[in-house]
Amino acid sequence: MFLLSWLARSGASAVATAVLLSGLAGGAQAKEARPTATPALAEISLSELPVQAQETHRLIHAGGPFPYDKDGVVFGNRERLLPIKARGFYREYTVKTPGARNRGARRLICGGTPPTAPEVCYYTGDHYASFKRIRD
């Protein structure tokens, strides 16, 4: 309201006022139009995964032991590529990469309780840039 009264007092033309107001309304509409749902993810069968990922999957169901200290830590899903769940739902596990000097880029992300019986697991071979849902 302040803006409208200022425009009227300043002698702004009706065209300028309309352009300004349409820009403000357009900005509000753009905010509301943001998608909140995650896109559908490709699927992959457990047998199609690299053998190292299959071994990590087996270790998850066995409760370990895991080769890396960070295995089993909470995965934050900051990229929002996985379905949105409460913090702590997802945990990440390293998939060994032959020849890598560090943990490499491959991970399994599993969600659900208990961690040894996850509801769902995802594979990423590119350090969270993309995911595939694992079909058992």
From TrEMBL:
Record's keyword terms, sorted: Hydrolase, Nuclease, Signal
Q: Where is the signal peptide?
A: 1-30
- Mind telling me which CDD domains this protein's record contains? RNase_Sa
* InterPro entries per record: N1-like (IPR000026), Ribonuclease/ribotoxin (IPR016191)
Against Pfam families, the record matches this protein to:
Ribonuclease
Put simply, this protein is called Ribonuclease domain-containing protein
